Amino acid sequence: MLGMVAVGLIAALHVYIMALEMLLWETPRARRAFGTTSEFAAQTRVLAANQGLYNGFLAAGLIWALILGVPGQGRDVALFFLGCVLVAGLYGAATASRRILFIQAVPAAIGLGLVLAAI
């Protein structure tokens, strides 16, 4: 049960990140979240939208796992996509911002633990 909640919350987080990157990149909210200037946001709009698409795929995979059922058929799907989120979070923390470790990687690691423990 807690594993499903974690998967759902992480999926919702990635839908939000997708929206920030694809739809709201040049808004004050997104610029605050990512620490960018309006000039930088305008110059990187297309790159951010591409990155947002990847976050949307992560969310879609986690939602697919929920539809299949965690625990159940969706367990392996959840483990795969949580692993992808963890790797993306670790890479982002190493290359872009340490905050990503706590926003993306730590929740994914907790979710992995909960799904593996079938809690």
List the helices and strands and how they pair.
Elements: H1 2-22, H2 28-34, H3 38-43, H4 45-73, H5 75-95, H6 99-116
Helix pairs in contact: 1-4, 1-6, 4-5, 5-6
Describe it.
This protein has 119 residues and is mainly alpha-helical. It has one domain. Helix content is 86%, strand content 0%. The chain is built from 6 helices and no strands. Helix 1 runs antiparallel to helix 6 (99-116) and helix 4 (45-73) packs antiparallel against helix 5. The longest helix has 29 residues, at 45-73. The chain is elongated and about 45 Å long. The mean pLDDT is 95.
Keywords:
119 residues; mainly alpha
Summarize the structure.
This protein is mainly alpha-helical and 119 residues long. The protein has six helices and no strands.
The ordered string of helix (H) and strand (E) elements is: HHHHHH
Mean pLDDT over the residues:
95
Count of discrete structural domains? 1
N/C terminus separation: 6 Å
Shape: elongated
Uncertain spans, ≥5 residues at pLDDT below 50? none
**Oligomeric state of this protein:** single chain
